[in-house]
Amino acid sequence: MRGILTVFAGPMFAGKSAHLLSDYPDDAATLCLAPAFDTRSGAQIKSRVGLSRAARSVSSWPEDFAAYRHILLDEGHFMIAPHYKGDVARDIERALDKGVNVTVAGLDTDYRREAFVVMDRLRALADHYVPLTARCHRCGAPAAWTAKKRPTGHLLETGDEDLYEARCDTHWQSPD
Ligand SMILES: [Zn+2]
């Protein structure tokens, strides 16, 4: 039977990683992957609500993927060149074909409100696509966008509230 792909997408601070960690069992049949690029939390998936779980840092799809029943992938938007070797959407399809369930959390858009193409492709493949919103850091309204608080010259850059905020339509603005 084909595996099921679930995608949690939204801006930063929307609880994407928390869904990944709280909705699925922490057992030997579940493999957690995090991009090697994101060194903030070492080899673990960590959510801002205090949940964490050991993860394998990867820059390509794990060769032993078929040994697991479920693969959880955090920060899916980072799984692109030059940080990821290969095509993660195709790699996920291979896993689904083998009957492995895959669940991905990631940003749907960058801080300029431009789509992460890889997340668009995963949305198209997903059996369940779950759009999440955060709370606007300015007004508390539902926030669909990530804003960068100052220009840094880097598009892909990890950071926390020091660098990013969630913003509603009214309060989002480009740092550039
Ligand atoms: Zn607002």
TrEMBL record:
InterPro entries: P-loop_NTPase, Thymidine_kinase. SUPFAM superfamilies: Glucocorticoid receptor-like (DNA-binding domain), P-loop containing nucleoside triphosphate hydrolases. Keywords: ATP-binding, DNA synthesis, Kinase, Nucleotide-binding, Transferase. Pfam families: TK. Its EC number is 2.7.1.21. Transmembrane segments: none annotated. Gene3D superfamilies: 3.30.60.20, P-loop containing nucleotide triphosphate hydrolases (3.40.50.300). GO terms for molecular function: kinase activity. It catalyses: thymidine + ATP = dTMP + ADP + H(+). Belongs to the thymidine kinase family. This is Thymidine kinase. It comes from Asaia krungthepensis NRIC 0535. The lineage of its organism: Bacteria, Pseudomonadati, Pseudomonadota, Alphaproteobacteria, Acetobacterales.
